[in-house]
Specification:
Keywords: TPR repeat. This protein is mainly alpha-helical. It contains 20 helices and 3 strands.
């Protein structure tokens, strides 16, 4: 009796297995016909007894589910996430099935990444982060997706998630450095990049390109460590930030990104002297970068090194004549002694000596206005909607008796304020 029951049970299991295989085949056929809803219905019928079949059939089931969800998903992240989970499960059950899923996996990744780009442009950083992380998690091979997911988490101020993803990248020994295959177009003389070495070599053989080269892009590790350091500072964990940057810089003392991280950390911690020392080294590596000189101008201004600050601001303007921030900061520097002048003027009496000193101070004050005015007028021409600049201009025009200009700027400012 027991033997007969066992045989019957085996027959029943075989029947179920055959039935599930049949439903999966129906689903696969429906997918080929783009009948994704129908395919999902067949898979729903097969799912209840999935635990009774072997891993190969389970892998087929999840591969089919992934394709059906992807096909019906469009830009629906819930379905795309479901497809990613299904593909990931299928690959974990049968690694060989990944070869059959090359095209669906590429399509899924394209849908997720394109969606993430749109979200990022719309400042929907949380959704962009989730889509990029989902793209990474399908096969865990496209580590650049994880890197960009971390970047979006930073933009969305989700620092815990950013730290988690950055640490995952470090644990994977991710550098982000890639080999770029390039050659020179004989007609245009331009250096062009190719998707692979084979395509580059084919272009060389065609005779249309010359000078084949392989270039290695910069490592992103320094940038990752820099971002992690700044996040720890933002979170108030200065000890962790210092420990991380010290270890990283000991390994790579000449890494510019790490120098920037060290400089940024020093600046945030109020160590402007160290910040200046590091920034001088950084400027030496990129002497045509106006942002570096501008930042040095700010730190020297805060250290009360006014002449040095002015020198750096002027260098930034030399490299970028339309640099609004540098123009405004130069004007502010030239006006920086006004409070002390006004205070002294108000303290003077009515003696002949006091009256003489008053006239001297008044002249110094007027000269500072005239020195600052061209920079503010140029800043206003670059960005007419900057209300702070308009307020500066109003004050100066009022003080030097330029009534018509004063009234014109006042009208512009009132018009802008009424829109807010």
């Amino acid at each position: 009796m027991k033997t007969r029951i066992l045989i019957t049970g085996l027959a029943f299991a075989t029947a179920i297995s055959f039935g599930q295989k049949k439903e999966i085949k129906k689903a696969e056929k429906a997918i080929k016909s783009n009948e994704y809803t129908e395919a999902l219905n067949y898979l729903s019928e097969a799912e209840p007894m999935l635990s009774t079949v072997d891993n190969d059939m389970k892998a087929q089931f999840y591969a089919a589910r992934g394709q059906a969800l992807l096909g019906s998903g469009g830009s629906d992240f819930k379905k795309l996430k479901g497809a990613a989970d299904a593909f990931s499960t299928a690959i974990s059950l049968d690694p060989k099935i990944e070869e059959q899923l090359i095209d669906p996996l590429q399509n899924l990744r394209a849908a997720l990444i394109n969606g993430a780009i749109k979200d990022q442009n719309a400042q929907q950083y949380k959704m962009a982060t989730d889509k990029l992380y989902t793209s990474y998690m399908v096969t865990k091979k496209d580590t650049s997706d994880l890197y960009f997911a971390a970047g979006n988490a930073v933009n969305g101020q989700d620092y815990d998630t950013a730290l988690k993803y950055y640490q995952m990248l470090l644990d994977l020994n991710y550098s982000g450095a890639t080999v770029e295959y390039v050659a020179t177009n004989k007609t245009t003389g331009e250096v062009e990049a190719f998707d692979s070495e084979k395509l580059r070599d084919f272009a060389i053989k065609s005779g249309e390109f010359i000078k084949p080269e392989s270039k290695v892009t910069k490592s992103r590790k320094g940038e990752i460590l820099r971002n992690m350091t700044l996040i720890y500072i933002e979170k108030g964990d200065t000890e962790k930030a210092k420990s991380l940057i010290e270890t990283a810089r000991a390994e790579n003392p000449d890494d510019v990104f790490l120098m920037r991280a060290d400089a940024d950390m020093s600046y945030k911690m109020g160590d402007n002297k160290r910040y200046n020392e590091l920034m001088e080294k950084i400027v030496a590596t990129d002497p045509e970068n106006p942002e570096l000189y501008f930042n040095l101008g700010i730190s020297n201004d805060q250290l009360n090194n006014k002449e040095k600050a002015l020198e750096y601001y002027n260098k930034a303007l030399e490299l970028r004549p339309e640099y609004e921030g540098a123009l405004i900061n130069i004007a502010a520097l030239k006006l920086s002694g006004e409070d002390e002048i006004v205070e002294e003027m108000n303290s003077l009496g009515n003696s002949a000596a006091d009256n003489k000193r008053y006239d001297e101070l008044k002249k110094i004050r007027e000269n500072s206005y005239k020195d600052a005015l061209p920079y503010l007028e140029k800043a206003n021409a670059i960005n007419p909607s900057n209300q702070n600049v308009l307020k500066y201009l109003m004050n100066i025009y009022s003080q030097i008796g330029e009534d018509a200009k004063y009234k014109a700027v006042k009208a512009k400012l009132e018009a802008l304020e009424s829109k807010n």
